[in-house]
């Protein structure tokens, strides 16, 4: 049923996905298009490659209609719009190595599209940029949180998180039998830029013996003693899950150099693996799960959250309520001021319920 106001011209809304991709983004796109086109009779313009698409001339855009909102896109990993997690338009890296403020170009792009509102699907980094652009350019912005790291404030769940935890849990399920067959310690390194949510949730669900997260400082002797204890009590294998942002034994973050002068986390698993072998004598193997956690089919709960977020974001525009982010709280979709969501990243609470669960299960967090 269309809820478009008779006589008023149909709105045009823009939609972009920004930051690292994750499973469930296409389910968001499907929900936004379905609600906006079917429910309100609006036009939806998809902006390709996040804000990078607004810096290109001609602009990288495509009209999104109901043919795209078929059930199939719901199941697809990645984002059909493409995305970028580099190239902040306020400090855009130029070929000569300098940084240039290109925010006006992005805003001109939005104006050229004649958008009444913009839906940005992103994490806290993207929201920081999009909100600044919105304030500078008078853009009516609504945010939808997505990140496998699940570190966006005020929402219990961001799109992509459940799928990443499912993949990490399945990895532990697959590592356990091979660990037991060979009497080995298996170390699984998972993602989570500065937050240990994936490691903690998957570690509990996948039966890890040790969970290391950046929010709880660890001592290697404690980890080794726990593994030794398991072995003395007859266990012939052990499972260790570590979040990529956990520092090495000297307290330094472990990073890999990437293109465009960037670095990403990666490598702590191997450092721990070697230390475990050295201290316990156990044969150890390391698996770095990496981007496997981001791709692939979204789980049912990511699809559900994505669908609820997409519909609610369009309804917010219908109500003329902007500078807000949709969020998942107490089993339902709600909305909060974007500024509140961005106030602080949501890390694991070291005294929180899930940490207590892990300790209650006898899992070592490396600290005692
Ligand atoms: O923020 C999502 C995330 O997947 C982090 O968990 C990870 O550290 C980072 O992105 C990897 O970024 P990239 O896609 O640039 O390798």
Walkthrough of the structure:
α1 (25-40) packs parallel to α9 and α3 (103-112) crosses α4. The strands form 4 sheets. A 7-stranded mixed sheet has the order 3-2-1-6-7-14-15, sandwiched between helices. The model has no long low-confidence stretch (mean pLDDT 96). The chain has helices at residues 25-40, 52-55, 103-112, 124-137, 161-182, 197-205, 220-232, 268-280, 300-318, 338-342, 353-360; strands at residues 12-17, 43-47, 61-64, 92-93, 99-100, 117-122, 141-145, 184-190, 210-212, 238-243, 255-257, 263-265, 283-288, 324-329, 332-337. With 368 residues, the chain is α/β, with parallel strands linked by helices. The longest helix is centred in the middle third of the chain and has 22 residues, at 161-182. It contains 11 helices and 15 strands. Bound molecules: 6-O-phosphono-beta-D-fructofuranose.
Which features does this protein show?
single chain, 368 residues, alpha/beta, seven-stranded mixed β-sheet, four-stranded parallel β-sheet, 11 helices, 36% helix, 19% strand, binds 6-O-phosphono-beta-D-fructofuranose
Sum this structure up briefly.
By secondary structure, the chain is an alpha/beta fold.
SSE inventory with pairings:
Layout: E1 12-17, H1 25-40, E2 43-47, H2 52-55, E3 61-64, E4 92-93, E5 99-100, H3 103-112, E6 117-122, H4 124-137, E7 141-145, H5 161-182, E8 184-190, H6 197-205, E9 210-212, H7 220-232, E10 238-243, E11 255-257, E12 263-265, H8 268-280, E13 283-288, H9 300-318, E14 324-329, E15 332-337, H10 338-342, H11 353-360
Parallel strand pairs: 1-2, 1-6, 6-7, 7-14, 8-10, 8-13, 9-10
Antiparallel strand pairs: 2-3, 4-5, 11-12, 14-15
Helix pairs in contact: 1-9, 3-4, 5-6, 6-11, 7-8
